[in-house]
Amino acid sequence: MIRTQVAIIGAGPSGLLLSQLLHLHGIDNVVVERQSRGYVEGRIRAGVLEQGTVDLLIAAGVGARLLRERLVHDGFALGFDGRTFRVDLKGLTGNSVSVYGQTEVTKDLMDARVAAGAKLVFEAAEVALEGLDLARPTVRYRSEGRTHEISCDFVAGCDGYHGVSRRSVAPSAMQTFERVYPFGWLGILADVPPAAHELIYSNHSRGFALCSMRSPTRSRYYVQCGLDEKLQDWPDSRFWDELQRRMPADVANAMVTGPSIEKSIAPLRSFVVEPLRFGQLFLAGDAAHIVPPTGAKGLNLAAADVRVLYRAFVERYRTGNAGLLDRYSAECLRRIWMAERFSWWFTSTMHKFTEDAFAHRLQLAELDYLTGSTAALTSVAENYVGLPFESPA
Ligand code: APR
Ligand code: PHB
Q1: Does the annotation count 73 as an active-site position?
Q2: CA distances from 87 to 31, 53, 162, 201, 369 (A)
Q3: pTM
Q4: Is residue 369 annotated as a catalytic residue, yes or no?
């Protein structure tokens, strides 16, 4: 039997960041992960960080490479009706965003945890949570052919949308809110220079497209695709052709193409569970909420949850006061729903839902209005850079 203060389920960015911050504040914790370390570090995910997330990663002691290698973007572009319009994030809000892959964030956190001698259990099978309504819950898992038990004060469910934590809660104890979008994102990674030095989100009658990047020599591109489409239907040549068709001509003509080094299709979903706390179990990150990637809020929302949760555990262990833990759910859900709204709005404005030409005209009118109104632009910029936090990192 392993005894600890906080058992963390999942070694994704939420679980590792929480583990690191608790460690820095002297709170013992164990991380239990179903996959191998290599698998966790190899996942390709998005890469736009709000300043609040950057501040928290710095406070967690994993900011050095991020600050060295990130691309700071003071704006992004909207493509529509054959033109591009730059949203001046810095000018409108005073804030920028950092382009730095989630894969790199996960690697930095993993390295820091391993260097600190953290208790990380990989390839844990049949993870089960018991006694969540008792003072000391138990986490059980199988590894190397035998069953292991962790006795803890609290369980942090950081195991993503498909994890065991939320599934360990009686459906009657929670309410879920979900919207599934009738399309996906086909994304590629390619070692070619980006089409532009800032991101371009494009609304087109053929569907949405996004030009993003990981570095000055590695690009990340996405096109909206049907949910029933298969990767084998999309050879690189067809991908580049479709991407260029959906981008304004000046961007398409400047685009350097090349072989893809990664290609995948991701579905789009909006999802929230309420509340986020069930007895001694606290859900954080994708275990509690999913946003469509359009607003680049996934990782930032996960970090925002961890920011509140680690401070609540620190207060509880330092002073015995569980006030912040009791307010965890309400505090996070406010920010979660605002990010859900922005991500839904951005997805609704930039994607093709039907062949309905009237609907597309409305989208174009929305973008035309938006790009002519400082008030509307400021609202978009504020949400994109990340809404302010009451407290420092
Ligand atoms: N037991 C143990 N670990 C599990 C289990 C389980 N039953 N189920 C899932 N996991 C692990 C997964 O293998 C994964 O490593 O939990 C981890 C969850 O990590 P993420 O899905 O990355 O979720 P989170 O850490 O909350 O990060 C959210 O990830 O998907 C992006 O856009 C999202 O950027 C956001 C970020
Ligand atoms: C990415 O770089 O993968 C990316 C960027 C912005 C998004 C989504 C994904 O909104």
Answers
A1: yes
A2: 40, 21, 35, 11, 13
A3: 0.97
A4: no
